[in-house]
DNA sequence: TCGAGTACTTTATCTGTTACAGTACTCAAC
DNA sequence: GTTGAGTACTGTAACAGATAAAGTACTCGA
């Protein structure tokens, strides 16, 4: 786990990633459950671990997302049969959910292209003849 | 100008790009004015044209952004000296604005990486060894 | 003079995020 | 035996950015 105290590179994560990820939460949750059924807190951990701890989604954000996805029929939920210990609510993606997930990934790719293009406007003019190249990595 | 009625490829643009660009508006405006002074409506057109008409930011969104940028001292404004015809309010980026712009581009690059990583969770396991290619164009 | 285009602005509403608060169980440590 | 950390789920209130809608005002060609 990265220390959040000294490293400049880590500044980035929670500080602004949170704001800029707005609107993507539902798609991210669909990405996780499209891999297989999972329960609320496990989805939280999956997201955290997939980003190496860089992005820790807020619980309230996540549960608000579950509510939307359920309301729209994109996931189904059921209680696990843990007879002792904390109850777990499992989420399963529906066919509608898979379709929306695919659409949203497409939307993201378009959006990513748009933002890349627009932010490129601010780069100092290049000397070459071709379209603005993206800096590799 | 693209007709918005028949083309499927155009569906993408206004429909959802708008929502997903949330939080990036100020950075996009900074990108435009970091190229040189510009006035409100011209910035609107620059953004529209840079995306080939795919993304037409809403005026209200844009003017709300100007207000924020002014309040934070990231741009300065002055009225042009158009003696006849419609008045134009010009915006000029400040040093603080340039610094914030650079930071925000960095933030975008990190965010882009995070979302790419997270949405990748939902892809079926790949057989090859390389990263997923981006569809060209 | 009528409509389309240019140009700027404000107000009210909507939505996603999140701080905060709360409930409830388990398990290891003291 | 209770304290604290971790797991797990939920609701409420407040905030911020986006935007529909409406308005003001000028220009120019038909």
UniProtKB/TrEMBL annotation, chains A, B:
Residues 29-102 form the Transcription regulator PadR N-terminal domain. Gene3D superfamilies: Winged helix-like DNA-binding domain superfamily/Winged helix DNA-binding domain (1.10.10.10). Signal peptide: none annotated. Pfam families: PadR (PF03551). SUPFAM superfamilies: Winged helix' DNA-binding domain. It comes from the Bacteria. InterPro entries: Metal_resp_DNA-bind_regulator (IPR052509), Tscrpt_reg_PadR_N (IPR005149), WH-like_DNA-bd_sf (IPR036388), WH_DNA-bd_sf (IPR036390). This is PadR family transcriptional regulator. It comes from Catellatospora methionotrophica.
């Amino acid at each position: 786990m990265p220390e959040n105290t000294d490293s400049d590179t880590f500044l980035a994560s929670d500080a602004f990633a949170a704001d800029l990820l707005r609107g993507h939460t539902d798609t991210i949750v669909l990405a996780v459950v499209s891999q297989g059924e999972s329960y609320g807190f496990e989805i939280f951990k999956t997201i955290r671990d997939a980003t190496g701890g860089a992005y820790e989604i807020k619980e309230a954000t996540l549960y608000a997302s579950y509510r939307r996805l359920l309301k729209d029929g994109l996931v189904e939920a059921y209680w696990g049969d843990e007879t002792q210990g904390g109850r777990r609510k499992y989420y399963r993606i529906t066919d509608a959910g898979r379709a929306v997930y695919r659409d949203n990934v497409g939307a993201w790719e378009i959006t990513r292209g748009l933002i890349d293009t627009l932010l490129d406007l601010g780069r100092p003019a290049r000397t070459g003849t071709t379209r603005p190249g993206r800096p590799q990595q």
